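Protocol step 4 of 6.
Sequence for Reverse transcriptase zinc-binding domain-containing protein (Favolaschia claudopus) entered exactly as in the expression construct, tag removed. Do not edit the line below.
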Amino acid sequence: MFASPGILLNKGNQRLFMKIVMSLRTRSERKSTFINLERTRCCLADEFNFSPSNDAIWKFLLSTDIPRLTRNFLWKAMHKTYRLGAFRQHIPHLEHLELCGICKVPESMEHIMLECTSPAQELIWNLAERLWRLRHSDWPRLNWGLLLGSGLARFRSNQGKLMRGKNRLFKILVYTSMKLIWKLRNERDEVHNRWLALINNALKRDQLLTNRYRFGNLARNSDTVLQTWSGTLKDEDALPDDWTQVTPDCQKERKRGRKRRDG
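Step 5 output, structure tokens:
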């Protein structure tokens, strides 16, 4: 009898079959991922004369020594999956989010972490460096590749021996600072969005109150509203001269419930 290749269905399980299927798939590496991996490798080589493999970099990013949410953050940063900068350029009503709200330049994760003039970013890195210098003097010059590969730092003693405690401290300082900078950046966006929503509500309220059909003598003067908001609206040139006019709602609301019969 001839032995047929493969495995019998009743001899395996879903985990085994999925592992086999995944091993047969050819994965094309993302361009942005390839660039970040190369930058990480080059920066570590320049700083520590150490060029890790891709597997070593991924092993650090997935290490259980790092909190789970931080691992997710670093993994997405390496793959450049956060929707920043040019990603929002072609999304209606979100084009303005392509630029950093502070620096007015195209936003990227590297810009947020190292280049933005936000006081919070500068303060966080200064605090990290200050803590580092309580024990060590050689705080490296930070760059994007070094941040992504912080867990692979290779600080050595004068005798050439790896300093595990020093390397681990650097890793913790870097990924903790990165996570906080990202969190504060999102909170800044949240404040901006909440403020913008309140301003839009005030504008909408002004516009609705100009409707004389609904409010009669209590209606707000259209000229007053136009003078208040003129020059502040998005795509204002595309609006009619008097954009305050609201179509009257002529439909009467149906009364809820049934009328009770007398007696």
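Step 6, annotate. Residues 254 and 260 are 16 Å apart (CA to CA).
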